[in-house]
Design a protein that fits this description.
Elements lengths: L1 H27 L10 H13 L5 E2 L2 E2 L6 H6 L8 H17 L2 H10 L4 H12 L13 H19 L5 H16 L5 H21 L11 H8 L1 H21 L21 H21 L3 H8 L6 H29 L17 H14 L1 H4 L2 H21 L15 H9 L15 H23 L2 H31 L3 H16 L6 E6 L5 H9 L4 E6 H10 L2 E4 L5 E2 L6 E2 L6 E5 L3 H4 L2 E2 L1 E3 L8 E6 L4 E4 L4 E5 L11 E2 L9 E2 L4 E4 L10 E10 L4 E7 L2 E8 L3 E7 L8 E4 L20 E10 L2
Parallel strand pairs: 3-4, 3-8
Antiparallel strand pairs: 1-2, 5-12, 6-7, 8-11, 9-12, 10-11, 13-22, 14-16, 15-22, 16-21, 17-20, 17-22, 18-19, 18-21
Helix pairs in contact: 1-4, 4-7, 5-6, 5-7, 5-15, 6-15, 6-20, 7-8, 8-11, 9-11, 9-14, 12-14, 13-15, 14-15, 17-19, 19-20, 21-22
Length: about 750
């Protein structure tokens, strides 16, 4: 009978995984492209590079990433030549492996001897957990979640078993999780630390008063639990895995995270203070994301927990605090110092909720008598009040650095977006953010309600109520989170279709091994994202218009490709290539390609959005400097990207300058002695605008403009360099004038700048 029931549970569990996979896939499968840079680009691009046996490269350049597990997970999908089908297949695989996380969670529940009803309640919560939205991305969290939870299961198994096999499995799981994500380096530290300190913790929390029984003997505790043997086996296995991977897969690959270990911030008292503030902020935000109870309740009742649950909680809490410390140390203190609300990277540690919940449910079932104590009830009430006050002072909501950081607190962002009047002005320091206080009040009310029912209800009714509330909060996060996810990841189908046609051309002509560079206006615009996701070339690079400007500035005539220095568009790393066969450019960057000679347009695959140019001599680049250049600031032919700084986005038939300085880069033939510059203005902002124009540090024009007019002046090029700077001292924003919320500092509405040789 037990066997039949067990098989029935397993069948139901598998069916739930399959149905949940299908549901995730249906919701998250749409025409999408890489959005979170550089993370997704690195995992995805490296997978493609490995597929073509080109090593660990991103945009054709060696990339120092050692956490390659997810790239290897993606690698087989590049055997699918149709990019649309490949992306859908990846979404399906991600959905499956994220859904399958309920299997190790079920195993953890069984290991802690939870009642079957409680196991299903936890599974139900996890099936609507907001971070499952990440299934639609190309983020390593998809694999990290599963590996983390499997490793949690192995680690917890070691606490209740003398079989060293579980220590071996825990070590293998710990390293593979680290191979997926750097933060998992916390696993071995927490595991070893927990095994070492658990007997001492037990000594402290289990000791009797002076009239009580004998205290725990630490030595006997070590001996009885065979801790030393587990430690040795775990460490040896982990070291073997580390050496094995270093000598094979990771040979000669640097670690991108080395730079994160800088401790210079310790010299600055403000940075030290901010470190403490950020750590406390992370703890509060994490507690809110986990609905507080699973984090706090087992800690309060740690004396009442059985040995296995207690050890599992001590290990988990050590891992949790250690992970928070590492995130604040490696990310927050480097990137967020000064932010009132530092970014909360929940995705690094939210898999822990799959262990906190079983431990919490077990703690509730073990503390029925304690919870009926009136004195404890009163004391616990004070605790909730104190927690609420601390949160109200500290919590300021969430700040997103990327789409996938804080889904478990997304209701917080949604409230701030819907009611901006309740939010703060800019990033100035205030004690209370109204909307954040509202969130705290609502949550503390929920917790207080739960606390009331904790005393009044049976453990079964209480845990069912808690599960219903938590599922409700998850749904409140999932709905706006999914909408936000789709809005940020979706791309136009016509762009994808054109890129697929380009792929077909390269395959049909057997030129997939060509050196191809995409010229990008921005590494994060829709054109670049589609190229990064759907172009299948074996050797693909990406350069921006800044690189084109540099090539034009430093080159005249014919230059060997291997002598030209390119810059990686993401991290700026310099690199050289032996040849350049093709250039792909978007409609926004195509105007600038004409300056480079001997690139012939492939008309058959050059469409509305993308154009392909073939280099006649792949080993050379010829720059054809002209005697004139025309900058177009209208939406119909904007060609300013990379050549103009200090402008806003193009509107219709003009573009506003933005800031006090407008910088123009222009390079004509070297033998030109004098040029005329005509600046066509559609309008000026806020009436008259003073204008000063500089060539280098030399002032060459002074005047003013009022409304639409033409500004003309002459300039003497230096070796063909006709670059100049327009200084606009009276630029001002509409927000400063009380006209709108627009914070751009506006001065000139530009239509055209023409630079031509004076005969």
């Amino acid at each position: 009978m037990h066997k039949i029931t067990k098989n029935k549970d397993n069948i139901i569990l598998v069916l739930m995984v399959l149905l949940h996979t299908l549901a995730l896939f249906v919701i998250l499968n749409f025409t999408k492209a890489i959005e979170t840079y550089p993370d997704e680009l690195a995992y995805y691009n490296i997978a493609k590079s490995l597929f073509y046996n080109n090593g660990v490269k991103m945009h054709g350049v060696s990339f120092p990433l050692q956490n390659l597990a997810y790239s290897y997970f993606l690698l087989p999908f590049f055997g699918i030549k149709n990019g649309v089908i490949r992306v859908s297949a990846i979404t399906l695989a991600n959905s499956f492996i994220m859904s399958a996380c309920i299997i190790p969670i079920w195993g953890i529940c069984k290991e802690l001897n939870l009642k079957k009803l409680y196991r299903w309640l936890i599974v139900a919560i996890m099936l609507v957990w907001p971070d499952l939205i990440i299934s639609g991305t190309f983020m390593s969290e998809n694999l990290f979640w599963f590996l983390s939870l499997i490793t949690f299961y192995f680690c917890i198994k070691t606490y209740g078993s003398k079989n060293i096999v579980w220590s071996i499995m825990a070590a293998i799981g710990s390293y593979l999780t680290y191979f997926c994500k750097e933060v998992a380096l916390c696993f071995p530290i927490a595991y070893v630390g927990a095994l070492v300190i658990i007997p001492f913790i037990n000594l402290i929390i289990d000791r009797k008063d002076d009239k009580g029984t004998e205290k725990i003997n630490v030595y006997k505790e070590y001996r009885k639990s065979e801790i030393f043997k587990k430690l040795v086996v775990y460490l040896i296995t982990y070291i073997i895995m580390y050496i094995l991977f270093k000598k094979t897969i990771l040979l000669n690959i640097d670690d991108i995270y080395k730079s994160k270990m800088d401790i210079s911030f310790l010299k600055d008292w403000y940075s030290i203070f901010y470190f403490v503030y950020a750590f406390a902020y992370y703890f509060i935000a994490s507690a809110l994301a986990f609905m507080v109870y699973p984090l706090i309740y087992p800690a309060i009742h740690i004396r009442e927990l059985d040995k296995k649950t207690k050890n599992a909680f001590l290990f988990l809490m050590l891992l949790f605090l250690e992970t928070l410390f590492v995130i604040v140390f490696t990310i927050t203190i480097k990137e967020d110092v000064g932010r009132v609300a530092p970014r909360i990277h929940l995705r690094y540690f939210t898999p822990m909720i799959g262990v906190f919940l079983p431990i919490f449910f077990k703690a509730i079932s073990l503390t029925q008598n304690i919870r009926e104590n009136k004195f404890f009830f009163k004391k616990y009430t004070y605790l909730w009040i104190i927690f609420g006050v601390i949160c109200a002072f500290l919590y300021k909501g969430i700040t997103l650095g990327s789409t996938n950081e804080s889904y478990a607190l997304f209701f917080s962002k949604y409230l701030a977006d819907k009611f901006p009047a309740l939010c703060h002005e800019g990033d100035k320091t205030v004690v209370f953010y109204p909307y954040a206080v509202i969130i705290i009040v609502l949550l503390v009310f929920v917790f207080a309600l739960l606390h009331f029912f904790e005393k009044s209800f049976s453990e079964k009714k209480f845990l069912m109520l808690f599960s219903i509330i938590m599922i409700g909060v998850c749904v409140l996060n999932v709905i706006p989170g999914t909408v936000f996810f789709e809005r940020t990841y979706i791309v136009r189908e016509d762009l994808v279709k054109e890129m697929e046609e380009i792929n077909n051309y390269f395959r049909e002509n057997n030129i997939t091994d060509s050196r191809v560079a995409f010229v990008a206006v921005s590494p994060y615009d829709e054109y670049s994202r589609v190229y990064d996701t759907y172009f299948d070339g074996e050797n693909n690079y990406e350069i921006n218009n800044e690189n084109i400007v540099n090539i034009i500035a430093k080159t005249s005539g014919t230059t060997s490709v291997d002598k030209i220095t390119f810059n990686d568009i993401i991290d700026g790393k310099e690199y050289n290539i032996d040849r350049l066969d093709y250039i792909i450019c978007s409609s926004e960057s195509e105007e600038n390609i004409g300056i480079i000679q001997d690139f012939t347009k492939v008309e058959s695959i050059s469409k509305k959005n993308y154009s392909v140019y073939k280099n006649i001599n792949a080993y050379e680049i010829k720059v054809n400097r002209t005697t004139s250049f025309d900058f177009n600031f209208t939406s119909s032919g904007n060609n300013t990207a990379g050549f103009v700084k200090g402008i806003s986005s193009c509107e219709d038939d003009y573009t506003w300058s933005d800031g006090n300085n407008l910088e123009i880069s222009c390079f004509l033939k070297k033998n030109i002695k004098k040029v005329k510059v005509d600046i066509d203005l559609k309008d000026t902002f806020n009436g008259k605008q003073q204008i000063y124009i500089y060539q280098g540090d030399t002032e060459i024009y002074e005047g003013e403009a009022n409304g639409g007019q033409m500004i003309s002046f002459e300039l003497i090029p230096i070796e063909g360099d006709c670059s100049f700077r327009v200084f606009l001292p009276n630029a001002i924003s509409p927000s400063q004038l009380g006209q709108s919320m627009d914070t751009r500092n506006l001065a000139l509405a530009l239509r055209n700048i023409n630079i031509k040789k004076i005969e």
